[in-house]
Amino acid sequence: MNVLNINMLGFVIQDGIWSAVAAVCFGVLFNVPRRLLPGCALAAGLGHALRTLLMQLGLDIELSTLVGSTLVGFISVFLSLRWHAPIPVFTLCAAVTMVPGSFAYRTMLGVIELSQGNADTANAALIAASSNAVRTALILGAIALGIAAPALLFQREKPVA
C-alpha cells in the first residue's frame, strides 16, 4: 500500500478538477440550469477524486467506484434539498465521469478480434473480452448502486392517509 505523498495528492486534486470540468460540460449538454452547474461540478470532482485516491492507495477500480459514487449520491441528495432541484440533475452529470469507457472499448475490440475467426488468438481474445465485459458490468453496477443507496436509505414516501 502506497503512502500518501505530495505528488499523489496533486494528482488526485488535478483529477477532481478535470472531472468537475467534464461534469459542467455534460451539464451544459444536458441543459442543466446555470445555477445548478456548480453543484454538478462539486459532486463530480469530489466523487471522482475519492475514487482516484482509493485506487492510488491500492483498492480495485470496482470498489473505488462504489465508494466514489456513494459520495456522489450523498452530495446529490444534500444539494437537491438545499437548491430544491431533482437529484438526477447532479447525479447524472457526476456519474458520467466515472463510466468505464476504456473497459467497454477493450471488450468491443476483443469481440471484434474474436469474430474475425483466427483460431490462434481465439482463446486469448475470448478471455480478454470476457474479463473486460465483467469489469465493465461491475463498474456500472457500482455506479448505479452507489448513486441509488443514499436516496433509498434517506428518502421515504409519505404515508397515505
Give a brief rundown of this model.
The chain has helices spanning 6-29, 37-56, 61-83, 87-96, 101-115, 122-154.
Molecular structure report:
The protein is 78% helix and 0% strand. It has helices spanning 6-29, 37-56, 61-83, 87-96, 101-115, 122-154. Helix 1 packs across helix 4 (87-96), helix 2 (37-56) crosses helix 4 (87-96) and helix 5 (101-115) runs antiparallel to helix 6. It is globular. The mean pLDDT is 91.
Write the layout of secondary structure elements.
Blueprint: H1 6-29, H2 37-56, H3 61-83, H4 87-96, H5 101-115, H6 122-154
Helix pairs in contact: 1-2, 1-4, 2-3, 2-4, 3-4, 3-6, 5-6
What distance lies between the first and last C-alpha atoms, to the nearest angstrom? 55 Å
Secondary-structure content class: mainly alpha
Q: Quote the beta fraction.
A: under 5%
The total count of helices amounts to 6
Fraction of helical residues = over 70%
Main β-sheet description:
none
| Average pLDDT reading | 91
Number of DSSP strand runs: 0
Rg over alpha carbons:
18 Å
Enumerate the spans where pLDDT stays under 50 for 5 or more consecutive residues: none
Shape: globular
The SSE order reads: HHHHHH
